[in-house]
Amino acid sequence: MDNGKTTIRGQRLEDERRVAEEPGSSSAAEAPAPREEEPPADFICPITTELMSEPVMAADGHSYERSAIERWLATKSTSPMTGEALVHSFLAPNHTLRRQIREWQQARA
């Protein structure tokens, strides 16, 4: 029976609903904390899975962190990405990729 008066239980529900809808309310759905921006996939060494600081290009056309691919080539003559034989073990510095990584890092700072 509704006589125009709000019951205590009804008032409590209404208050909870109003609080939940208020911005900044602890009852409102919390926005996720801003997470650190992930680097582009091309900036990550496929061997170490870490951001490269000295990227070099191998005969397979892929770029790797210099120290990681040098360790790889010390015991293998295949591509870490494809498993196919590399035609040579020369490593060319990838200056363009290194510059892009540095620019990305500076933009985040």
Automatic annotation (TrEMBL):
InterPro entries: Ubox_domain, WD-SAM-U-box, Znf_RING/FYVE/PHD. Residues 1-41 are annotated as: Disordered. Residues 11-21 have a biased composition (Basic and acidic residues). GO terms for molecular function: ubiquitin-protein transferase activity. Signal peptide: none annotated. Residues 38-109 form the U-box domain. GO terms for biological process: protein ubiquitination. It comes from the Eukaryota. Residues 22-32 have a biased composition (Low complexity). This is U-box domain-containing protein. It comes from Emiliania huxleyi (strain CCMP1516).
